[in-house]
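Q: Please design a sequence for this.
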């Protein structure tokens, strides 16, 4: 063990290579809860009404927050989708594994069968497991060599999920079909599927060359390759026929499948990973949600997301299992307005702040990129609803769930998470974890610790270069921001004033980066 004193903040850190918390795992009672993770896409810290959103009503999320715990200092591991999802499901930081950057729709499966996942945790505990909606973590053994017309292997069954009904990547990437248990759902043999991220198929129109065919949404930057449902995509696709999704029906499709799963498993414990696409581009909600916000399609998509939340809660109520179901609602990263489609998101945002006045956004190393909504609802255990400001990181999801499912014995099961977090997540401990690491789109890392945030010098453009009007936070100089006492706007870099603190945080970040299983205990 090793002690480091930070003279400025008068704190010392003990940094063992591997640390376990005493007593963790005792919270499990004879009746284990069902667990439902509602994982939103590109939903910002300020995008729900219970987090201060303006211009859109989110009564279902509000109700979960009012009857549970609403966290104000919770973080995804990365400010983009694929790496944050990878870390959530495996408990491993994304920079430890090659290929965890934003994945193409025909990427090979990033989580491999030999890795231990959250789904494996619940399988080990005797739960039935399922995944719905956005996946974006690859399928099959080799990139670009999936058999979209047959069985895709490996798939989610190989990493712990009993049932899956997913999108291979996101709605803005081909293939635009649902994958059910490793096969294209509603497969149309008259329209065999071909996918490429290198070149188009002969005779197939594209958004770039055939803008007149973009009858639902036009692109603002990128997203000008294959056209599906009158919307340009990233990547090239041919075929699909009746298996092709309609964007306006995506939320209905995954929600109804999830509700059916709840109905079929009401008498045994289950874990459900419900990952929506609503707020991610292309935003094209069902017509019954159009005009339900003042922010155009993006606001209407948030309203659609809230509808899905309500449908899941209603199904749990009807099955009589809501009381003993742990629901966690959060997001994979921060928000973005113009992310490639001319949908009016920038023009119609009004006085709504998707980041809740935080600096940056999706892709960024600033707080707007990784601080996300985080609501925990479990009526059987959370008897005192409230707002919590303890530091939370999604890296701990696997170990927290292992403790709740009763399979950890108080020990860490993930490469990088910490089981001590469970008491914070359920409101028994207000302290939170001692540190959190965030990764920006260009792999710049930042470290939040003891009310400070250190951003490593790496360099790069000041603004996201391909279209979104978002500050990256990249710099060739170290950055240090005070995050305690309500100062979280990251506008006052005080690195020059506190060189000892900067050096200490720099050293801790390097040790975390380079040491698997590294954790810091406060003493």
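A: Design:
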């Amino acid at each position: 063990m090793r002690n480091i004193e930070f003279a400025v903040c008068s704190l010392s850190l003990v940094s063992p290579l591997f640390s376990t918390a005493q007593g963790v795992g005792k919270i499990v009672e004879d009746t284990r809860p069902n667990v439902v993770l509602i994982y939103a896409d590109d939903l910002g810290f300020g995008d729900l009404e219970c987090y201060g959103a303006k211009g859109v009503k989110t009564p279902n999320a509000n109700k979960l927050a009012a009857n549970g715990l609403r966290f104000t200092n919770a973080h995804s591991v990365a400010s983009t989708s694929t790496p944050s999802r990878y870390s959530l499901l495996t408990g491993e930081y994304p920079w430890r594994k090659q290929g965890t950057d934003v994945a193409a729709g025909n990427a090979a499966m990033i989580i491999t069968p030999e890795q231990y996942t959250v789904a494996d945790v619940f399988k080990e505990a005797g739960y039935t497991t399922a995944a719905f909606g956005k996946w974006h973590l690859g399928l099959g053994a080799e990139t670009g060599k999936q058999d979209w017309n047959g069985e895709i292997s490996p798939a989610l069954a190989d990493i712990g999920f009993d049932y899956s009904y997913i999108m291979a990547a996101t709605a803005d990437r081909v293939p635009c079909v649902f994958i059910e248990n490793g096969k294209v759902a509603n497969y149309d043999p008259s329209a065999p599927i071909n996918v490429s991220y290198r070149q188009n198929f002969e005779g197939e129109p594209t958004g770039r060359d055939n803008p007149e065919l973009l009858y639902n949404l036009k692109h603002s930057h990128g997203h000008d390759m294959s056209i599906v449902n009158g919307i340009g995509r990233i990547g090239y696709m041919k075929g699909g026929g009746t298996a092709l999704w309609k964007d306006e029906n995506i939320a209905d499709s995954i929600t109804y499948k999830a509700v059916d799963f709840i109905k079929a498993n009401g008498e045994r414990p289950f874990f459900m990973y419900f990952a929506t696409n609503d707020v991610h581009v292309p935003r094209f909600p069902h017509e019954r949600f159009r005009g339900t916000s003042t922010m155009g399609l993006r606001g209407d998509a948030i309203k659609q997301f809230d509808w899905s939340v309500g449908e899941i809660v209603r199904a749990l109520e009807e099955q009589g299992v809501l009381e003993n179901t742990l629901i966690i609602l959060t997001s994979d990263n921060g928000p973005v307005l113009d992310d490639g489609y001319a949908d009016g998101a920038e023009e119609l945002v009004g006085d709504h702040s998707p980041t809740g006045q935080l600096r940056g956004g999706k892709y960024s190393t600033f707080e707007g990129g990784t601080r996300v909504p985080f609501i925990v609802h479990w009526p059987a255990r959370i008897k005192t609803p409230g707002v919590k400001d303890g530091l939370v990181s999604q890296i701990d999801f696997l170990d927290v769930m292992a403790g709740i499912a009763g399979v950890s014995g108080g020990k860490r099961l993930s490469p990088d998470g910490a089981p001590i977090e469970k008491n914070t997540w359920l409101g028994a401990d207000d302290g939170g974890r001692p540190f959190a690491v965030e990764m920006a789109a260009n792999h710049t890392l930042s470290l939040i610790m003891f009310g400070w945030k250190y951003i490593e010098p790496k360099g790069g453009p000041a603004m996201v270069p391909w279209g979104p009007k978002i500050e990256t936070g990249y710099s060739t100089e170290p950055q240090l921001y005070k995050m305690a006492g309500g100062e979280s706007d990251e506008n006052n870099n005080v690195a020059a004033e506190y060189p000892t603190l900067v050096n200490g945080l720099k050293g801790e970040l390097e040790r975390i980066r380079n040491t698997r299983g590294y954790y810091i205990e406060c003493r």
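Q: Thanks. Anything notable?
A: DSSP finds eight helices and 23 strands in the chain. Residues 1-30 have pLDDT under 50 and may be disordered.
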